[in-house]
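pipeline stage [seq->struct] | target=Glucose-methanol-choline oxidoreductase N-terminal domain-containing protein | organism=Gossypium schwendimanii | residues=592
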Amino acid sequence: MAAFVGAVKLFISLVLWLNTLSSIQGARDFYEFRYPFIKRASSFSSTSSFSSSSNDEVTYDYIIVGGGTAGCPLAATLSQNFSVLLLERGGVPFSNANVSFLRNFHIALADTSPTSASQPFVSTDGVINARARVLGGGTCINAGFYTRANSDFIRRVGWDARLVNESYPWVEKQIVHQPKLAPWQDAFKDSLLDVGVSPYNGFTYDHIYGTKVGGTIFDRFGRRHTAAELLASAKPKMLTVLVYATVQKVLFDKSAGKRPKAMGVMFKDENGNQHQAFLTNNRRSEVILSCGAIGTPQLLMLSGIGPKAELQRLNISMVLHNEFVGKGMADNPMNSVFVPMTRSVEQSLIQTVGITKMGVYIEASSGFGQSQDSIHCHHGLLSAEIGQLSTVPPKQRTRQAIEEFIKRKRDLPREAFKGGFILEKIAMPLSTGHLNLINTNIENNPSVTFNYFGHPRDLRRCVNGIRMAAKVIQSDRFTNFTKCDKPTVEKLLNMSVQANINLIPKHTNDTKSLEQFCKDTVITIWHYHGGCHVGKVVDPNHKVLGTRRLRIVDGSTFSESPGTNPQGTVLMMGRYTGVKILRRRLGKAAGV
């Protein structure tokens, strides 16, 4: 028996070793074998077997801009029947240890070097944020939590419920897992139930009131599975994926008297060389933008579609005036309450969530980690020594604000790396802002304003959420786990202000006024959306109004963030839209 147990342990150790090995040096050979259609942008040639024209110039049935959360499943689906070119400005995630492992989650976000998977930006509100710059998009840098949207959301956006329920499982079978509940998350679950966030719904993908354990894109070894892996479902001969391909604008035919027709795109490769890629002459061929809520409205405007005054200000040739491009930007404001511990706690990201009926979600995270093989990162904006003050919005770029920010980072309590946080997030915020171009360089972030707590109802919800979070921390279940005395609310908030990092000036009454605490310590969990709303920028099928052969498939079309985390629905959206397009073009012959 002992020999058998020893053999099992040896086998498990071997599996773990092979898993780690494949994620580092061997990962490159692995992905090149599994995804032979992924190439660097500099390899692009204007001639290919895809060409359907009489000459040798290559054309594509679909050109998808953005190989992210929606773009990858969309490309994989459309390639079943049509030629697809997928253009991604970042690199591949497979050999990047910062992306691949849960324990390096914080490191991937802190890496602000020019080629990192995460591109930081700071909204004019003073909140530090991030956008993905890697094949797989936000699924490569997020906290991994997976949930479906509720049925009301599906009904409001007008989607076919039957096809939605076919599309979610297509994603889930490939990259979603049931988490092994971490001790912090287990104690948090019991505490939520103690304070009345009930019933307990167990493990489920569904969005249901009460306390639940959701899915995760991290497997039991802590390895991340991203949207890029959905490309394994593609038809290899029908798909070309170019990484380090930065699309600069959509190319249009602006023949007099006709709506502008998308013809292709112009993009730059990793060496700075310019290329153009074109659609076939078929009227159903399309350029599809899947660049996310920041990238898509930015690219639309740089391509000449947007508010006339905005385009004229930067001397962009106008293709189509649309005052709503970049409007209605929203982010779900999040505030955190820090919970110290005298001992180290296992690292965990979001696993358990409390879905309340007062318009807030209560979540939790704990610990800190970094693997030995993680890629050395440059902290950039978050570095107290370097600062990168040029990335800070002008409104916050005062010497006093920067010095206070640096001091707060240096003075972070050591317990922050031993304890954890209870997080409170507003569902469906009413406050909205806008996105504007700063210049015509697509590689630079636009100016983004979310206007957190601009609507008084959002602020009232935050106050109620903070009170709920404090009750969770003070519950007997949680204090028994932390082995700490039951803290007062004022003590909790005071520690949380110290541990909070944003560029918003703090006030002396932060711990006295919950309203001020919400305003001063607001952060993000990267669920921003909007900028290309249905009915204003796109029609119900997500085709750009006033144009031909141009569509948008990403969260920029959302007026609310679906569920407690949008990634599941955005992944599903890519598959759903792809299937819908195929069925409309081919009927039963589509085979999907």
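stage status: PASS
auto-comment: Residues 180-213+333-426+453-521 form a domain with the Cholesterol Oxidase; domain 2 fold (CATH 3.30.410.40). The chain has 16 helices and 24 strands.
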